[in-house]
Design brief:
Number of helices: 14
Structural class: mainly alpha
Strand order of the largest sheet: 1-2
Number of strands: 4
Length: 314
């Protein structure tokens, strides 16, 4: 059947057709489509594919005697990464990788718990107020991340109201502050990533069919069933997008931890940065970066698979 239809399909590609009042052919339409997509394709090649290829190549090169790169293909960096090479795999590196994954996971969870009620509140507010509320959500992203993080140093300092309240409650000492510490890092991370969690969720919550939610409730569904079958099943695409936009950047973030906790809270990003600048071991840094990319891709695959089971991954 396919052999009989293929000549007709090849012939139809050159036959004239009318497309939106224009006399053209399928072949010309395809050529025009590729022409329209070419800027995006070129952008992806130069700013995504080529840098990733450079990291992949550098990860399997050798470090020079005085730093730099020697163009000798080797698996030494891969062996060092997993503890089978002469450098071994330090326990501190394993702690840093584990801490980074935990920080990214907790940050994503906290952002979701805060973003979903906010997105629902904005979507249920009068239409004339929605754009203003969304603008207020996005205003912090217009300020540089370093400036916002320095602002958190002032807010969480020992003279600020949050620290004074915690001192009165006995949560911290009389002259202690909430900064530096792990608490400050989580506050900074959540404030940094929260807008990128709210926007995708809002785009899905705005189209939410509340009759489905009411139907689940009328069928004696509990709170979990209403959330699972009435809300989450409808906002699956926005939920997956929010998870991706929050989890992946959080894995490589290290500016917030540097400014709010210093060297006591090193992350994967710190480890990679040290290899490129302090240790001058670019190949090992590239291998660590490649590992971070693989971990991110594995997390994305797990998220999309979970989204398919949720009913929102299609």
């Amino acid at each position: 059947m396919n052999a009989v239809q293929s000549p007709e399909r090849q012939k139809s590609a050159t036959q004239p057709i009318v497309y939106h009042g224009e006399f053209t052919t399928v072949k010309r339409l395809r050529r025009r489509g590729w022409l329209l997509m070419s800027p995006g394709i070129v952008w992806l090649i130069f700013f995504l594919a080529l840098p990733l290829f450079g990291i992949l190549t550098m990860a399997f090169l050798s470090r020079g005697e005085y730093g730099g790169i020697e163009w000798h293909f080797t698996f030494e960096n891969l062996f060092n990464l997993f503890g089978f090479g002469p450098l071994g795999w330090a326990r501190d590196n394993f702690v840093i990788f584990t801490r980074s994954i935990i920080l990214a996971s907790v940050t994503t969870l906290l952002c979701l718990l805060l973003a979903l009620p906010i997105a629902i509140t904005i979507s249920r507010s009068p239409r004339r107020w929605r754009m203003l509320l969304l603008a207020l959500v996005m205003v912090p992203t217009c300020v540089n991340l370093v400036i916002r993080t320095y602002a958190w140093q002032l807010v969480l300092g020992n003279q600020a109201p949050p620290a004074w309240i915690c001192q009165q409650l006995g949560l911290i000492g009389p002259h202690e502050a909430l900064y530096p510490g792990a608490f400050a890092v989580y506050v900074g991370m959540v404030s940094c990533m929260l807008p990128f969690t709210i926007l995708p969720l809002y785009s899905s919550v705005e189209r939410l069919d509340w009759q489905v939610v009411e139907a689940v409730h009328d069928l004696y569904g509990g709170r979990w069933h209403v959330l699972r079958h009435g809300i989450l099943s409808q906002i699956g695409p926005g939920l997956i997008a929010a998870l991706v936009l929050t989890l992946v950047p959080s894995l490589g973030m290290f500016v917030v931890s540097d400014l709010l906790c210093g060297a006591k809270f090193n992350l994967i990003g710190n480890l990679i940065e040290q290899q490129f600048h302090s240790a001058s071991n670019w190949p090992l840094g590239a291998m660590m970066g490649l590992t971070l990319v693989c971990v991110s891709l594995a997390g994305l695959m797990a998220l999309f698979r979970w989204g398919n089971g949720l009913g929102g991954g299609h």
